[in-house]
């Protein structure tokens, strides 16, 4: 069962790679995949997640142009991420099955935001508002969070970045971080939204220092902050309650 879920995750990773590329290039989603270098269509057995990359040694069969490491990495990441919510399941019933499907939807959408922001430094409305509307209704009907709880979390997530955006006139953060803050609010609710912001800033700081030490990047060049927000959201979604308990235990 777990292997089956892992393979489904790999396939969604493959789909995600194609989706991000095609949406950015404004290409049709319904054509066959082609090599970006020689434009030759990719045969199905060269399009198997991870394995084809290894078998072809990371090169196009036709033109031998290098295939980006992004492809197998994203596929593997989705395979692993799809497995994480199953760790929290003791016995499967209908309600848990539905929540599992919703978590996979959230994982896929957040992975899309991560990859798109990382590659193109942009967060698309398309990747935010449909899921915000869906989760707001879902969380209300299934009593995951109350409406007041979600409104507070949205006000914190969105308001926090809106304030920075207004103060810095868009120099510190992009407008995309504001709408991502809103999505984080409906995914996490109060108080986990605070934890996710906290994790994102710590992580961003650590990675920034490491890159400076390695002199990989100039101090003024930036990794899009949305990528750290996505990681903070996933960590807070899965381990938020445990982290808060652990922290409260420390200060008691
Ligand atoms: Zn090629």
Oligomeric state:
single chain
How helical, in percent, are the residues? 55-70%
Poorly predicted ranges: none
- Which distinct ligands sit in these coordinates? zinc ion
From N to C, what is the helix and strand string?
Answer: HHHHHHHHH
Whole-number count of domains: 2
Distance between the termini: 42 Å
Class by alpha and beta content: mainly alpha
* Rounded average pLDDT: 91
Give the overall shape, derived from the CA principal axes.
globular
Number of helices: 9
Outline the structure in words:
- There is one protein chain.
- This protein has 252 residues and is mostly helical.
- The protein folds into 2 domains: 1-115, no CATH class; 121-252, no CATH class.
- It is 66% helix and 0% strand.
- It is built from 9 helices and no strands.
- It has helices spanning 2-24, 51-55, 70-83, 94-120, 129-141, 147-168, 175-188, 192-213, 225-251.
- Helix 1 runs parallel beside helix 4.
- The longest helix is centred in the middle third of the chain and has 27 residues, at 94-120.
- It is globular and about 60 Å long.
- The termini are far apart.
- The mean pLDDT is 91.
- Residues 35, 37-38, 40, 60, 62-63, 65 line the site of zinc ion (ZN).
